[in-house]
Amino acid sequence: MIEELKTQAKVGVGLNALWKALTKELRFVVPKVLPNIVKDVELIEGDGGLGTLLIFNFFSGAAYQKEEIVELDESFHRIALQVLEGGHLNKGFSFYMTTFQLTAIAEQETLVDVRVSFETETYQESTMPSKTIKATLEFLKCLETNIMNGAP
């Protein structure tokens, strides 16, 4: 059975800048925003749109994680990335997906709804989804700072 954890964050940058960073610039932005965690993000297939395959190479722990953009809705500003290989799937999960939904609050403020959907191979209490939520909120803070400082 697929379970979900949800959270929200207000980000002090405009919707368009944040959307661009989370979609078209994602593979360039993530290593800049998380330089001690993500070594690089390789584009395996696609152009950043639906069906794009990315490999996130990490410095420690899980050596890599292959993800696919399984949802990309420009009109609703929603993107979902599903883990296909490595990373969380090596830690007892059979399904792991993170969805971002962006909503403009003001000209320079965006509400980000984050949903982590997951299924474990065998029942187990896991803190991984809550750690993903916490790490995603930290990522959004760092991304906000990066955009505010004029970086793409």
Question: How would you explain this protein's 3D organization?
Answer:
- The structure is a single chain.
- 24% of the residues lie in helices and 45% in strands.
- The model has no long low-confidence stretch (mean pLDDT 91).
- A 7-stranded antiparallel β-sheet has the order 1-7-6-5-4-3-2.
- A hairpin with a 5-residue loop joins strand 3 (53-58) and strand 4 (64-73).
- The chain has helices at 15-22, 26-33, 128-148, and strands spanning 3-11, 38-45, 53-58, 64-73, 78-86, 93-106, 109-120.
- The chain has a single domain (3-148), classed as START domain (Alpha-D-Glucose-1,6-Bisphosphate, Chain A, domain 4), CATH 3.30.530.20.
- It has 3 helices and 7 strands.
- By secondary structure, it is α+β, with helices and mostly antiparallel strands.
- Helix 2 (26-33) packs across helix 3.
- Belongs to the BetVI family.
- InterPro entries: Bet_v_I/MLP, Plant_def-hormone_signal, START-like_dom_sf.
- It comes from Quercus rubra.
Quick recap of the structure?
With 152 residues, the chain is α+β, with helices and mostly antiparallel strands. 24% of the residues lie in helices and 45% in strands.
Descriptive tags:
single chain, 152 residues, alpha+beta, Alpha-D-Glucose-1,6-Bisphosphate, Chain A, domain 4, seven-stranded antiparallel beta sheet, 45% strand
